[in-house]
């Protein structure tokens, strides 16, 4: 069998960021090809280019599929060629049945009328192929994530898929479901279906893959072949993280004081699925003037942890203790959390951080209106003063404080959110992915602001998926995986390898 | 100081509806041979539309929280009318306790609907649709399908009465008190505006161009005095006018200058961001609907006083008039954008259209059609101009 897919010199640029830089990627027919790399290495971008989500013309380079040069305009184009992608967030309609979902957009019909008999008959065949023992009439919302994943694969099979792309398929699955899924991928391989597997779980990759391509910073590092190359996890990890760092982070002399904030035995359940534990017995502490990192892969539970601490903004049946300045405190609402000097900067600034249709001024003062009002009346002049102060202090590039935040660039938006929380004068600042989607220059500015805050004696909890950032900024690092703290590293101990090892080790314990 | 050109451009959209209102008024003034702006007709215009003006204030707040509307207000008006009619006409209760009970009932209705909307999170559309049926039904139960009339004199005064001309010492042929009130309000406006400018200058903030400030003052003072002249030439200031004026002023201050007012805008702008900024959005939503029903009760009192009867068919389609007024006045159907003043202007646009077309003898069928088109065009204008300003 020859090469089924070749991607040549793919370069994809987003405003301010080169997400892919001359990537070359070659997949043999009938193999399972793993694609590994850190968050932000460009794996998903590469797959989006391949599947036509980023249409031809928005990137440079060539895609050759089954010997033909392809120019996909959208995902339908790539599907017609037999390429199917299954995203991390499943794209199923919860209130439709399995059968309806399998043929969504691809309905079995007779002259425009849906042929329900054929739909369910073919659905039964497909479900048998993916070994899913459910009626095709069952609604998607009534089956678990593991089974939903299988439905996604069956849906791809319904489209006569030749190349199946799975983006972190086991991230949300438990051990048993993960095992079944891997078995299924091997089964499909023996049926002649080629598969690209994106995964952070190296043990899974080692188990099923025939080749492994490592991406880092938007470039291909190497492709390893099982059987010819010597492959072990250390080599892969080295390839994933081995990058040089020069002055990407401002210098800072940490002046760390006594413990200011502590969370003990924190356990949180999923808000909707009642018996799913999201956070399992997490304990952390932060000192005055200290920047403490929480590292981990996507879905490790960091955001859920932070939000549940921030006045129970996430989760249900929360148990555990919060101790601030030596005294236990109850934070039952966001308001209470703010009043106790805790601030949480969301990872999702557009949907949860800013009011995009409102101006810079109103966004900055929103959590702290009491500071600028007498009784219930807002002192508008004071408000303008505050907004002007932060606009110049944080160098928010804008026409004026009356500019709508929706029209600002990502970096400036983030500065507005930072201003908002700095003005709330917290003692503890939880920063969730504070530099996500921001260009390098603005990142440096934000790092500088964070360092200043720490120097003022504030305690910073710094959540980030980018290892270099965590390593460059933090005095101490907690490693989180699957809702648990799986490691605590001092600045000296911390390295990309040691963090990755903590995660991989805990994964091994689970599988 | 800003350039005059940019000032005008920045304020253009804000004033677009006001300009449209003036244009519509000029059109009908010509088309009706001057009847539209007869002093008597101007007074009538306000009296006829008093209930929409009151409802539009509350509806603005509902829409601001996230495009939520209240379909029950018409039925609540009728229900409240039925209560006041039963108390005052059948049971001969004095006015003050009757009014307090009536307003209290509006408050309780608000608690009921607010509970389902804010705490159980049933869409406002559904809860108030249910309310529309429930309170229409209860109105009929209370009135047993009959109309109660007439109300005592003092109750009729709410909508029909005028402020007595106690300043007319020399027997002038017009209402002196009205003119004096007009002058006082004008001076108050200029004084407040100057004070604000001075304060801003004191903080070192930019002010609008002084020429623009003068124009603004002239327009506002001119508007106040023109209205005072019209009212003075007829019977003076209607009592309902004072009530509406107080409500408009109070709610403008509330929405623009207070912390809870800001919370309403924040919730409509981005509920999640508001929650993560420590705002209890359930509470905001709850009180917005409590407030709406209290205002519906006030509107119900004013309407029953005006028609001098408690009728089982009162208040039909009031909710639609109020909603249309808000959207014509620039409120966003997604929440977070809109003003009380805008809704008042929107209500006046509809009122002038109604009144003007009636004078011209346009049939009720065409009136509805034209009002529908105006609503569509006004919102389309808003949507398209916003899209342009973004690119």
UniProtKB/TrEMBL annotation, chain A:
Domain of life: Bacteria
Subcellular location: Cell membrane
CC per GO annotation: plasma membrane
Primary location recorded for the protein, binned into one broad class: membrane
Domain ABC transporter, first and last residues per copy: 5-242, 263-507
An MF annotation (GO) of this entry: ATP hydrolysis activity
UniProt entry tagged with the keyword Repressor: no
Keyword Translocase: yes
Pfam family, one: ABC_tran
InterPro entries registered for this protein in UniProt: AAA+_ATPase (IPR003593), ABC_carbohydrate_import_ATPase (IPR050107), ABC_transporter-like_ATP-bd (IPR003439), ABC_transporter-like_CS (IPR017871), L-arabinose_ABC_transporter (IPR053466), P-loop_NTPase (IPR027417)
Topology in membrane: Peripheral membrane protein
UniProt-recorded name of the protein: Putative multiple sugar transport system ATP-binding protein
This protein's UniProt keywords: ATP-binding, Cell membrane, Membrane, Nucleotide-binding, Repeat, Sugar transport, Translocase, Transport
PROSITE patterns named in the record: ABC_TRANSPORTER_1 (PS00211), ABC_TRANSPORTER_2 (PS50893)
From TrEMBL, chain B:
GO molecular function: transmembrane transporter activity
Compartment list: Cell membrane
Membrane topology note: Multi-pass membrane protein
Coiled-coil stretches noted in the UniProt entry, renumbered to this chain: none
A GO-annotated cellular component: plasma membrane
Keywords of this entry: Cell inner membrane, Cell membrane, Membrane, Sugar transport, Transmembrane, Transmembrane helix, Transport
Transmembrane segments: 15-39, 45-64, 95-112, 124-146, 166-190, 210-231, 237-254, 322-350, 362-381
InterPro entries, sorted: ABC_transp_permease
Alphabetical list of NCBIfam families matching this protein: GguB
Role according to the record: Part of the binding-protein-dependent transport system for D-xylose. Probably responsible for the translocation of the substrate across the membrane.
Name of the molecule in the record: Xylose transport system permease protein XylH
The species this protein was found in: Thermoclostridium caenicola
């Amino acid at each position: 069998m020859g090469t089924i897919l070749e991607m040549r010199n793919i370069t994809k640029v987003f405003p301010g960021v080169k997400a892919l830089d001359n990537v070359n990627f070659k997949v043999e027919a009938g193999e399972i090809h793993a694609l590994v790399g850190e968050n932000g290495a460009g794996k998903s971008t590469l797959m989006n280019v391949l599947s036509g989500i980023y249409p031809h013309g928005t990137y440079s380079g060539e895609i050759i599929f089954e010997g033909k040069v392809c120019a996909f305009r959208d995902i339908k184009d790539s599907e017609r060629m037999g390429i199917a992608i299954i995203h991390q967030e499943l794209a199923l309609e919860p209130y439709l049945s399995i059968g309806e979902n399998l043929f969504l957009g691809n309905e079995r019909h007779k002259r425009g009328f849906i042929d329900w008999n054929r739909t369910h008959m073919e659905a039964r065949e497909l479900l048998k192929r993916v070994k899913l023992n459910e009626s095709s009439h069952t609604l998607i919302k009534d089956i678990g994530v593991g089974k939903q994943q299988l439905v996604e694969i069956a849906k791809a099979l319904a489209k006569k898929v030749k190349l199946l792309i799975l983006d972190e398929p086991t991230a949300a699955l438990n051990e048993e479901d993960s095992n079944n899924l891997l078995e299924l991928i091997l089964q499909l391989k023996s049926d002649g279906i080629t598969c690209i597997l994106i995964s952070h779980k190296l043990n899974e990759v080692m188990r099923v893959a025939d080749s492994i391509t490592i991406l880092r910073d938007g470039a291909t590092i190497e492709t390893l072949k099982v059987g010819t190359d010597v492959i072990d996890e250390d080599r892969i990890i080295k390839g994933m993280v081995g990058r040089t760092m020069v002055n990407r982070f401002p210098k800072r002399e940490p002046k760390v004081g006594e413990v200011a904030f502590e969370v003990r035995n924190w356990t949180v359940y999923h808000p909707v699925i009642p018996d799913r534990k999201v956070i399992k017995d997490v304990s952390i502490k932060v000192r005055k003037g200290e920047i403490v990192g929480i590292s981990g892969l996507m879905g490790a539970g960091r955001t859920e942890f932070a939000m549940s601490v921030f006045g129970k903004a996430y989760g249900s049946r929360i148990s555990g203790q919060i101790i601030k300045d030596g005294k236990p405190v109850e934070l039952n609402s966001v308001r209470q959390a703010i009043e106790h000097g805790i601030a949480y900067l969301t990872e999702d600034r557009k949907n949860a951080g800013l009011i995009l249709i409102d101006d810079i001024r109103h966004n900055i003062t929103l959590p702290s209106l009491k500071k600028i009002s007498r009784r219930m009346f807002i002192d508008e002049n004071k408000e303008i003063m505050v907004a002007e102060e932060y606009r110049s202090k944080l160098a928010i590039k804008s026409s004026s404080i009356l500019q709508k935040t929706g029209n600002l660039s990502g970096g400036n938006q983030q500065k507005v959110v930072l201003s908002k929380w700095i003005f709330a004068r917290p003692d503890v600042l939880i920063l969730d992915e504070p530099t996500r989607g921001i260009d390098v220059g603005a990142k440096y500015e934000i790092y500088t602001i964070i360092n200043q805050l720490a120097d003022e004696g504030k305690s910073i909890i710094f959540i980030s998926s980018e290892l270099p950032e965590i390593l460059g900024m933090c005095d101490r690092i907690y490693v989180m995986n699957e809702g648990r703290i799986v490691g605590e590293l001092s600045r000296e101990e911390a390295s990309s390898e040691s963090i990755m090892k903590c995660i991989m080790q805990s994964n091994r314990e689970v599988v | 100081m800003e350039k005059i050109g940019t000032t005008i451009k920045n304020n253009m959209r804000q004033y677009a509806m006001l300009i449209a209102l003036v244009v519509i008024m000029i059109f009908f003034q010509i088309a009706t041979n001057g009847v539209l702006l007869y002093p008597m007709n101007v007074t009538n215009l306000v009296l006829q539309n008093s209930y929409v003006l009151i409802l539009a204030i509350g509806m603005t707040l509902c829409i601001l929280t996230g495009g939520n509307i209240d379909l029950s207000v018409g039925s609540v008006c009728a229900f409240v009318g039925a209560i006041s009619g039963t108390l005052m006409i059948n049971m001969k209760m004095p006015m003050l306790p009757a009014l307090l009970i009536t307003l209290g009932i509006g408050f309780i209705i608000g608690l009921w609907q607010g509970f389902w909307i804010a705490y159980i999170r049933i869409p406002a559309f559904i809860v108030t649709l249910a309310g529309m049926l429930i309170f229409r039904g209860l109105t009929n139960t209370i009135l047993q399908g009959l109309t109660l009339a007439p109300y005592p004199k003092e109750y009729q005064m709410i909508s029909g009465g005028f402020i007595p001309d106690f300043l007319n010492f020399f027997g002038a042929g017009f209402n002196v008190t009205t003119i004096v009130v007009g002058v006082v309000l004008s001076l108050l406006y200029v004084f407040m505006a100057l004070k604000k400018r001075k304060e801003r200058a004191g903080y070192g903030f930019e002010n609008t161009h002084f020429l623009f400030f003068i124009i603004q003052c002239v327009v506002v003072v001119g508007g106040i005095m023109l209205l005072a002249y019209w009212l003075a030439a007829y019977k003076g200031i209607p009592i309902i006018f004072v009530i509406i004026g107080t409500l408009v002023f109070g709610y403008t201050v509330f929405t623009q200058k207070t912390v809870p007012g800001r919370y309403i805008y924040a919730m409509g702008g981005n509920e999640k961001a508001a929650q993560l900024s420590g705002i209890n959005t359930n509470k905001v939503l709850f009180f917005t609907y409590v407030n709406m029903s209290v205002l519906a009760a006030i509107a119900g009192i004013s309407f029953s006083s005006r028609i001098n009867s408690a009728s089982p068919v009162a208040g039909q389609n009031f909710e639609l008039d109020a909603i249309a007024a808000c959207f014509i006045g620039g409120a966003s159907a997604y929440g977070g954008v809109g003003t009380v003043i805008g809704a008042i202007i929107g209500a006046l646009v509809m009122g002038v259209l109604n009144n003007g077309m009636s004078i011209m003898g346009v049939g009720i069928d065409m009136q509805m059609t034209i009002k529908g088109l105006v609503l569509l065009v006004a919102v389309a204008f808003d949507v398209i101009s916003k899209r342009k300003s973004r690119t």
